[in-house]
Amino acid sequence: MYVLMVYKYFGRIYLIPWRTGMVFSKAFYRYTQSFGGMRAVIPFKKGNAKSRLGKLLSEKEREELAMAMLNDVAEALLGSGCFGVIDLLTTSIIEVKGLNTVLTEKGLNEALNEYLGKMSSHSINEPVLIIMADIPLVSIKNIRDIAASATDVVIVPGRMGGTNALFIRNPSSFHVDYYGASFIKHKEIAAGSGLEIEVFDSFNLSTDIDEVADITEILLHGKGHAARYLKKLGFTVVEAENGGRVGLKKI
Ligand SMILES: Nc1nc2c(ncn2[C@@H]2O[C@H](COP(=O)(O)OP(=O)(O)OP(=O)(O)O)[C@@H](O)[C@H]2O)c(=O)[nH]1
Ligand SMILES: C[C@H](OP(=O)(O)O)C(=O)O
């Protein structure tokens, strides 16, 4: 008799012969045991989100765009199949399918350092990916590439000195320091603990949406919730009149 097995691997479902499945399962089990589970955490503040876009969007629109970008990031994390747990560290009650809502009143640094501290005090020694909610171009492949790194700390820079993601293999030996030149600060924190660093080079991941000009990148390259939301609001990319590359127009 030919029996098929439903096999879920990195978020995709396969139908394979039972015997092959058993061999795969054992190999996959040994593989996962070799590195343990992984978790991801997305810090999020919906209230008056993206204030630097205030010249272009109303408060309600900024909050809706922030939610759309969060959904893009969540889908990439869930689609990657890399994480047993994905926490949403949020300042207000928000439900996103597949994510655990963790409420906090604290600011970004305090909230994340408390989160890392709790992991240590509960002896959760899993690698953790801290990823910002404002990088809507992120792909499933980007996430899998980060998670596949064998380095102690993967730092994903944002433009102008920011940090868009941090993959920390041993969270008890690291703390975060966002704002200002956080990219430099995170490299120093890792180096100070003798940790090996990989700087992750990616257009998608370095494109955080902070300023009005960044909106153009979503319209040029985005395919997800944020791109659809901006198009729904009537935004489109046009040739710049002054010889520059492109501009933004609202129809
Ligand atoms: N939990 C938590 N997350 C935050 C807080 N402030 C910002 N974030 C999140 O941290 C990430 C980067 O933040 P920013 O780029 O400064 O986003 P923002 O605060 O909405 O934007 P601006 O008002 O323009 O600074 C985003 O995922 C935010 O949602 C906070 O106080 N607490
Ligand atoms: C949180 C901060 O984000 P930005 O202000 O660059 O959006 C940072 O990356 O340190």
UniProtKB/TrEMBL annotation:
Protein's pathway: Cofactor biosynthesis; coenzyme F420 biosynthesis
Any single Pfam family the record assigns to this protein: CofC
Catalytic activity, EC: 2.7.7.68
Keyword entries, A-Z: GTP-binding, Nucleotide-binding, Nucleotidyltransferase, Transferase
GO biological process: F420-0 metabolic process
Source taxon at top rank: Archaea
Catalytic class of the enzyme: transferase
GO MF annotation terms: GTP binding; phospholactate guanylyltransferase activity
Family to which the UniProt record says this protein belongs: Belongs to the CofC family.
Function noted in UniProt: Guanylyltransferase that catalyzes the activation of (2S)-2-phospholactate (2-PL) as (2S)-lactyl-2-diphospho-5'-guanosine, via the condensation of 2-PL with GTP. It is involved in the biosynthesis of coenzyme F420, a hydride carrier cofactor.
Oligomeric and partner information: Homodimer.
Family annotation (PANTHER family): 2-PHOSPHO-L-LACTATE GUANYLYLTRANSFERASE
NCBIfam families: F420_cofC
Protein's UniProt name: 2-phospho-L-lactate guanylyltransferase
Species annotation: Candidatus Methanoperedens nitratireducens
